[in-house]
Amino acid sequence: MTAPKKVVLAYSGGLDTSIILKWLQTEYGCEVVTFTADLGQGEELEPAREKAVMLGIAPENVYIEDLREEFVSDFVYPMFRANAVYEGLYLLGTSIARPLISKRLVEIAEETGADAVAHGATGKGNDQVRFELSAAALNPDIRVIAPWREWDLSSRTALLDFAEKNQIPIAKDKRGEAPFSVDANLLHTSSEGKVLEDPAEDAPDYVYQRTVHPEDAPDTPEYVEIGFERGDAVSINGEALSPATLLARLNELGGRHGIGRLDLVEGRFVGMKSRGIYETPGGTILLEAHRGIEQITLDRGAAHLKDELMPRYAELIYNGFWFSPEREMLQALIDASQTHVTGTVRLKLYKGLARTVGRWSDHSLYSEAHVTFEDDAGAYDQKDAAGFITLNALRLRLLAARARRLG
Fold it and tell me: Which of 49, 104, 127, 134 is an active site residue?
C-alpha cells in the first residue's frame, strides 16, 4: 500500500503515542500532525505540545483544543437523555468520547490536506472499532492507520527499546511495569490491566482517583437540587451553569461522597471479556436526577418505550456506531420524549449513594387528587376498575378454560 503523505495522529503526549509519532515518521516517511483533545481529563496538556515539537513536529501542526463544552453538550447530554447504561451498569464514559475525537481528527485532516489519520488503540480493544467506524462515517475516503495492528513492537520491552533508540523521553515510572492503564475525561475515569486483570481480586484502593472510599465519606448527608430543561441539566441549587461546568461541579460533589464507583467485567465488542474499574461520580448523580424528573413529567407509555430501546441505544454507542443512521433515528425519538422533561430534582448524597428525595415541575403529570387515599372529590371513580379488570382478564379466562378442558 502506498505510504501516506500526511497523517493526523490522536496524540496524548504519553509514551505510546509518542512512539507512534516517531514510528509514523520512520516507517512511512510522512509528515505528522498531532491532535490532543482536552475533554476534561484533568491533565496539563501543554507538555504534549512541547513534546510533539521536540519530536520534530512543526508548531503549526500541533493542535490542542478545549472540547469540554462540546463533549458534554453534544455527546454526554444526548446520551443521558436516553438514560443509557451498557450491560445494566456502565455509563459509557470512554465510549462517548471517541466519536468527538474522531470527528476532529477527520476535520483536521481536511483542514491540513492530510490523507490519513492514526490512533493508538490496540488490536484487542473496543476503541480501534470506535475510532475507525466514526472516521468511515464522516469521510469514506479517509485512511486510518492503526500501528498496534501493524508493527512488531509486541512487548513493553520492545517499546522502551524503540523509544531509547529514537531519543523519546521515558518517564522513570514507565521503566517498570505500570500497575494499570487509565483513560479519563470529564465524565469518568477508566482503569484496567495489570493488577486489575484477575476479576476475583478486589481492586486496590490506589486505583480510585476521583472518589473517596464510601466508608470514608462524610457522616452527614448533603442535599443538592438539579434543574432540568427539556431533559438537560441546566442548574445546581438554582445557579445556572454551562454543561461542562455543571458536570465538573457534580464530579466534585459525587467524589466527596464516594459516589459512582463501579467494578465491572464487561463484554467487549471484539469478543473477549475485560475487567475495568470505573468512576463516574457526576454522571451517576445526573442519571439518578434525570430519572427522577422523568418520573413526574414523562408519560408511562413513552417512559417504558424508552426503557425498552435504551439497551440497543447504549450498545450502539459502546460498539462505535454514534454516527450511524440507527443511532440518529433513536436519538430523534429520545429527544422528542424530552419536550416536557423540565423541572427540579432534590437528591441526597450519602456514603456512595445518590438518591432522589424530591421532584417538582410545572409540566408534572402527577395528580395528587387522583392518587390520594383521602376523599378525591370525584376525581376517580373506583367502580370503573371492575370493568377494566374484567376486560383484561378475558383472555386469561379463555386460556384457563382451554387448559382445564384439555386436561
Answer: 127
How far is 69 from 324, CA to CA, in rounded Å? 23
User: Model-level pTM?
Assistant: 0.94
- How far is 125 from 252, CA to CA, in rounded Å? 30
Strand partners, 239: 236
195 vs 180: CA distance, rounded Å: 6
Annotated active-site residue 38? The verdict is no
CATH of span 182-298+340-360: 3.90.1260.10
Catalytic residue (one of 181, 235, 324, 364): 181
| DSSP line for 285-354 | HHHHHHHHHHHHHS-HHHHHHHHHHHHHHHHHHHHT-TTSHHHHHHHHHHHHHTTT--EEEEEEEETTEE
Cα distances (Å, whole numbers) of residue 349 to 82, 100, 180, 211, 223: 23, 31, 29, 13, 6
pLDDT in tens, 339-380: 999 999 999 999 999 999 999 999 999 988 787 777 777 788
C-alpha dihedral sign at 190, 195, 196, 202: negative
Catalytic residue among 68, 98, 130, 359: 98
Q: Select from 3.40.640.10, 3.30.1360.140, 3.40.50.620, 3.40.50.150 the CATH code of 6-72+93-176.
A: 3.40.50.620
Has 16 been annotated as catalytic? yes
Partnered with residue 233 across adjacent β-strands are 228
CA dist 180 and 193 (Å) reads 5
